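Human:
Focus on the backbone:
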Amino acid sequence: MRSKLLLIYVVLCNRLVAALDFYVAPNGSDNNAGTSAATAFQTLQKAQQAVRSQIAGTMTGNITVQLGPGIYTLSEPLKFTADDSGKGGFTVNWVGSGALISGGRKVTGWVADSNGVYSARVPAGLKSRNLYVNGQASNYARKKIANRKDFTYTTSSIKWTSSSYDWITSTPGIANAEVRFINSFADRYAPIESAGSKELVMKQNTWYNQNWGYDTISKPNADFGVWIQNALALLTEGGQFYLDSGAGKVYYKPLSGEKMDSVEAYLGVSESLVILGGTYANPVHDISFEGISFVGSQGFKFKHISDCCGRHILPGCSQMILDILTNRQVVISARTRLMTRPILNLLVLIGAKCHLPSRSAQPKILFSREATTHSSAQVE
């Protein structure tokens, strides 16, 4: 009898602290209750509202938001603050195997052009730095420089003497292109202002900023390559793209075996996808993300990581841009495979799995790289 009463007591206690699940699916409805897979919400914003309402009351267990497989398109970043954070020792978990959060614009209607290149119409004036095809980031239309030591770098330009590099100034559209330098620490981009005789005049003040400090263009600690890029005439290899924003047209050369009538292609148009923020007195905490992929951000307003302020680019990471905001705000963009070390208790958590600990916990950061384009970061 006593053992039965004890069992009943344990069951009742478990129910009192039972975890709560909310469900989201691309084919759901925000008019649903969201408490089962059959009654799933449709949008992440609706799920966030439900979680906040639950947190505002008594939180008696972990809250898990189950994202069903599919694409969740955001027109603006999903912002998380202390109002979205766990409390009482419990955590809010956002979990989504096969779920993809996108800030991109889908590109369809591909038409075959010449030389194996395809094109598609997009709104004129649309700006983007990224094209994702079947979940993979495409390279810019580009051509590699043989040796950066063949060039002279002045305060305003890049110069050369060998005629073997004269193809640079004769490339159509070169005045709107850029030069990319991958060093040991810094991944530097330098827009081109105009072309002269064996010379590229570079845009200021970007050029000035790229030529002082640590691991510069002319004095890299290590040289991992230099490319002239972002001109249609340079689109010669599979997996490359070029966006003509003024004409409203995007060009892409498919990889071997890619069928353009069935590809899933998105241009990144959102500045960021997820923002974790708050204040120093009341930061976001006790919230985790697991199994979710991010795609479709562009980063025009973001700052290139190219200094020595404790930020760290993993070997082989490239085209990675993000912004670290004040007051414990963190931006998660689709440019995964980039992570940073903690700066003033700020953590940038990009990719498939991340967890913000409670405010009293001392964070331990674990980084890992996956075989896909998405990486994971975990804080325990």
Remarks:
- The chain has three domains: 19-103+272-379, 105-134+241-269, 142-234.
- The radius of gyration is 24 Å.
